[in-house]
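Q: I'm building a small set of examples for a reading group on sequence design. Run inverse folding on the following structure and report the sequence directly after it, with nothing in between.
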């Protein structure tokens, strides 16, 4: 075979030369127009399923959440491998698909499988798909502080959650933004057990009243208003501490018992968990990490 190719090349010199020049030119053109990626994605299409279960030990997370999800996802179309990690209060499952599959189609397949096992999850636990991202992605950390300490840390955290984070998510290529530190703002209800006993109220009743109070309700429409009709809306959203203090828990002898009668309502930061680094600005306007 090799001898035949050599004899053909010697007899057809011009044709062989032309074909060689064509290959050289085509290869040069492809090389000049080829995309360059310093960190190419060397992983198969992957969908990440994250499930939070506050208060559960790793053993419970493995038995009640991770194992049922793995069993359901293993039989999905195109799945090549399923790996998982169970920790304190969290389960992370990595579902890998075959090369060349569409990541959006893969996410749809995983989402359909999750619907089959949702009713078997513990109360309050719902699996969620993590944003599309590459394992070769980069993490950028930035810090926020108040000049002279004029702004409380809780307000700085609120600004980061509702202003800075939302704008960062609009930047192309940003997959997710996590905010830590400062203190997440909460309306905290500090219940007095003696007052609960005095009015004959349980903690469950207080919790139910707080949960059902933060809602708006519609009252229909006002008609016969000329060419217009008006929507009747009852505003029940809690915006300040005083709104929550006025929430009625139950009625006793014709008198409503409000939240302020059995508890103290304050604005405070969420209880912090874990440990993290902080950025501090010194007098030379340099960022130091502690």
């Amino acid at each position: 075979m090799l001898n035949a190719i050599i004899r053909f090349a010697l007899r057809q010199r011009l044709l062989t030369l032309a074909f060689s020049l064509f290959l050289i030119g085509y290869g040069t053109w492809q090389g000049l127009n080829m995309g360059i990626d310093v960190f190419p994605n060397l992983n198969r299409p992957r969908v990440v399923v994250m499930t939070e279960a506050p208060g559960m030990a790793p053993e419970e997370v493995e038995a009640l959440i991770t194992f049922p999800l793995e069993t359901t996802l293993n039989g999905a179309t195109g799945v090549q491998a399923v790996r998982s990690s169970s920790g304190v209060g969290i389960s992370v499952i990595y579902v890998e698909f075959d090369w060349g599959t569409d990541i959006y189609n893969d996410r749809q397949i995983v989402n359909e499988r999750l619907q089959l096992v949702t009713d078997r999850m513990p109360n309050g636990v719902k699996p969620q798909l993590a944003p599309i991202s590459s394992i070769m992605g980069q993490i950028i950390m930035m810090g926020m502080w108040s000049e002279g300490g004029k702004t409380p840390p809780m307000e700085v955290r609120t600004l980061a959650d509702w202003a800075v984070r939302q704008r960062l998510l609009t930047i192309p290529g940003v997959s997710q933004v996590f905010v830590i530190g400062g203190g997440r703002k909460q309306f905290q209800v500090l219940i007095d057990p003696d007052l609960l006993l005095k009015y004959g109220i349980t903690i469950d009743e207080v919790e139910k009243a707080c949960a059902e109070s933060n809602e708006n309700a519609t009252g229909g429409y006002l008609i016969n208003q000329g060419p217009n009709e008006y929507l009747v809306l009852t505003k029940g959203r809690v915006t300040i501490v005083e709104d929550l203090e006025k929430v009625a828990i139950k009625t006793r002898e014709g008198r409503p018992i409000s939240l302020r009668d059995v508890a103290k309502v304050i604005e405070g930061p969420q209880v912090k968990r874990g440990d993290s680094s902080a950025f501090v600005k010194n007098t030379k306007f340099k960022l130091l990490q502690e």
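Residues 283-290 have pLDDT under 50 and may be disordered.
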